[in-house]
Amino acid sequence: MGGACSRKPERDSEDSPCRGLSRRFCKSGSLKWWTSSFAYPSVDFHLRKGDCPSLLELCIKKINEQFLFQQDIDRYNSFSMLPRDISQQIFNKLVCSQRLTSVSLEAFRDCALQDLDLGEYAGVNDSWMDVISSQGSSLLSVDLSGSDVTDFGLSYLKYCENLLSLNLNYCDQISDHGLECISGLSNLTSLSLRRNDSISAQGMSILSGLVNLVKLDLERCPGIHGGLVHIQGLTKLQSLNIKWCNCITDSDMKPLSELVCLESLEISCSKVTNFGISFLKGLQKLSLLNLEGCLVTAACLDSLADLPLLSNLNLNRCNITDDGCEKFSRLENLKVLNLGFNDITDACLAHLKVLTKLESLNLDSCRIGDEGLINLAGHRQLKCLVLSDTEVGDTGLHHLSEFKNLRSLEICGGGLTDAGVKNIRALSCLMCLNLSQNCNLTDKSLESISGLTRLISLNVSNSRITNSGLQHLRTLKNLRSLTLESCKVTAYDIKKLRSTHLPNLVSFRPE
């Protein structure tokens, strides 16, 4: 099917960082179950007519104008005499522009900065940690992800007793000894240690003292089997990510039953079975559960039915079949349900009929046909529906014509024709539409969707669309992304359409 449809990311994919690709790994993905990020305010000097800039804005603007070249910033020995707001803004600007170096960093010693976002920043190592730790009790959050910081470098952070958030993702030189260095940071509420091969079950015992942790990320830490017993006392924990830890088994689930405040739990791609899921019955606050790729069947729904707040459930790539699917009807509070890549048929959809609170449903690559979609006709809250690589055709789309709130629809690789696409015309709220790899679609399909003026993303790749059909897209003024790969369409004609009718189009293929 080629590269025309990017709807299915590799199972090894992860969320993209804000400053491009890491030098060690590539991240991509369309489904974001859980992500941690640090947001730092910046002053954008754009004022409306009649507005007056604050003195702080004027000061920062003047300073930024002064630092035109790297040698300018290197002239200054210290910013510690400046107000913290100003030195923080200067630091953020230098990081965003990739102009912070080990030399210019020295000027920020003892500046009482609160937030140091150095994730994926080139050159960060132990030599930077002395200046970082000099921020002392003022320092609240540090992102060192993807750096060359070692256990020794982490020892500097013991002076930052008020630290609330620490990101050490992909720091492959940090081991159990490094965790010992941060064991005294009892104010930590967020700790992220993704993709670390050196952290062991014994090292997990060090985390037991971080009693204020609210978020803990141990994704892709293959040595933590048996170590979760050490975090059962972290009763404030609300979010735990242990997905892609294939060492995790049912025995690791029992300690989690003590985490009574847990709201989000990700254990995808582990060896957990239905028995392990039974230990989660007491987690009355749990609202998000990611079991993608686990060894569970529909029998686990007996345990999940005891979770009154469960609203987001991912069962993609599990062993779900029609057998036992009647238990889905007990999960009446579900808003997001992913059942993609399971061996389920229309018979399963009959039991989803009562789940009228559903806002997102993924049935990718299931054996769902046209008749099964009748069971979704009453789902007025449904906003996102994925039916790619199913047996849904033109008749099935007719059953979707009453989904007035649908925002996103994906039917890749199906047997749709122009006649079926006509049923989409009534879905006036659609913002994202992916009909790629339906090779029988022609320019008439573009004519049918020309009235969907809220569309911001459209993909009709691997079809019979031609340059002549582009005229039907003139009405889609909000369109920002257009993908027509492997069609009889040229980049020249798309550019021409953009210049005359689609002012908001920023991404298009072919390009």
Number of strands: 17
Helix content: 10-25%
Sheet with most strands: 17 strands, parallel
**CATH fold-level assignment of one domain:** Leucine-rich repeat, LRR (right-handed beta-alpha superhelix)
Quaternary organisation of the protein chains? single chain
| Whole-number mean pLDDT | 88
Structural class: alpha/beta
Low-confidence stretches: 6-47
Write up what this structure looks like.
It is a single chain. This protein is of the alpha/beta class. Among the domains are: 53-111, no CATH class; 407-412 and 423-511, Leucine-rich repeat, LRR (right-handed beta-alpha superhelix). The chain has 14 helices and 17 strands. It has helices spanning 55-66, 70-73, 84-96, 102-105, 129-133, 151-154, 176-181, 274-277, 301-304, 346-349, 394-399, 418-421, 443-448, 491-500, and strands spanning 115-117, 141-143, 165-167, 190-192, 215-217, 239-241, 264-266, 288-290, 312-314, 336-338, 360-362, 384-386, 408-410, 432-434, 457-459, 481-483, 507-509. It has a 17-stranded parallel sheet. Strand 13 (408-410), helix 12 (418-421) and strand 14 form a beta-alpha-beta unit. Helix 1 crosses helix 3 (84-96). It is flat. The model is unreliable at 6-47 (pLDDT under 50).
